[in-house]
Structures are given as C-alpha cells and as structure tokens.
Amino acid sequence: MTRVKVHPNAAAASLAVVPAAEEKGEAVSLTVWRRSLLFNGKGFTVFDSNGNLVFRVETYARGSPSEVVLMDADGLALLTVRRKKLSLAEEWLVYDGDGDELAPRRFTARRNMSLLPTKSLCRLSPAPSLDGTTGDAPGCRYHVEGSYASRSLHMFACTGGNQRRRVATVCRKEAAIGPDVFRLMVEPDFEPALAMAVVILLDQMNAS
C-alpha cells in the first residue's frame, strides 16, 4: 500500500512549476492540504504525485479574506481571487498574477443562490476586457457541481448548447483523515492553476 505523502520533497520543490503528468498529456493528480506552511498562517499547500510542492496559498486575515493569491512553489503570484465589492449577488473576480490594477481579469465567478435543489455550486464566465472582448476562449464557461463540504466536485467546461466536458475533479484522498487533505484531478487540456483557483473560490464561498 502506498503511504500518503503530505509534506513536500524540499529538494525538488522549486522545480515543480508544471506537474510532470501534464507535460506527458496525462491527467494531473494533485494532493491539496488545506493548511499553510507558515506558522499562524491559513491557506493551502499543494503537491504533485511525487510529493513536490507545486502551489501554495498563505493568508493571515481572520474569517474569510476578501482577496486570496495563488502562488507557485517559489512564491510567484499566479492567480488572484478577489471578492467583488458592492455587488447584490455573491460574486468573485479572478485575475492573472497578483491582481494589481494592470492585471488582466480572467473570470467573474458567481455562487449559485437558487432556492431549488440543484447540484450546481457556481459558474465562471469570461471577464470582459477594457475593449469589451473576453480574455478567455469565446463562449467558454465553467460550471462546478457537487459538494465542497464532502470534497466531491466536478468542474465542467461548457462551450455552448448542452455540450460540456469535465476538466477537473475533487475527491477524498485515500487513507487521508478528515476533509483537509484531498485530491484534485486535472485533465491534460486544462490549467492546473485555474483548477486550484476554483477550489479557493469554493472555500471562500463556503466560508462566507
């Protein structure tokens, strides 16, 4: 039986910018630990299948912070998740990099607030740029279904009509105790960092 590996392989952590499986055209298996590596910090630490550090999130705000930055192993900002201010709906914005005033906005995410029973948790829509065009593939939307509390999620890319394909999955990790360690499976044609940003979004939505 394979032993569950939570802590990173420090010797190779700085090299784990792109998971090896993604380079081979295979699904990427990531282990997500809902804990910061820093003392007194909150966040996430993410490892690849070899135990190498890939992504990390570190926050110090009490409660649910209004902004969370996804970083690589070296601390470089990859994506920023920010709650939208002065909005009647529960909306979040996803930016490239550290989310400064010049950073491109990738997506607008909205929590599903339907009173009817539904599997849908949230949806991401391409954010319009300054010239009114979308920065993502035309017409591409993402829907997330399942239960974040149970760590059972499916993320789908919707390209129009009823056509959709699964791009990422969250599930319980074998032999893991509790919900703070779980598995994130990312299909080879999808961006692992964006899949992790969706996990951050759902964590924020469930904390709000």
From TrEMBL:
Pfam families registered for this protein in UniProt: LOR (PF04525)
Signal peptide (residue range): none
Family: Belongs to the LOR family.
Protein name (Swiss-Prot/TrEMBL): Protein LURP-one-related 8
Gene that specifies this protein: LOC123447553
